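For practice. Any example?
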Amino acid sequence: MVDPIGNRPIVTTGPRGVTRVQAPSPTAPVASVDTTAPVDKTSAVAKTAASLAQSPPVDVDRVAMIRRAIEEGRFPISPATIADNLIALKFDWISREPS
């Protein structure tokens, strides 16, 4: 249940009262990273990056299929849906991971 908004004094004791938060405990210092060390070119990340750099990140066949469907009038274009998706991308409401 939601309490109505009004002028009530703050209760400092009891189950709904304000409780004091403890100070954070100290943590160990973070070790620095050596940025001058040579990079292992055979790592999985380097191989993946190299393979992705060789081809465009666009599925050319799918683009051609959609282009043909638009030209033939078979692809539904909804300006409201496009606008909604653009707004959602702007505010990170849509995951950018491939589905």
In short: The helical segments are 44-54, 60-71, 79-90.
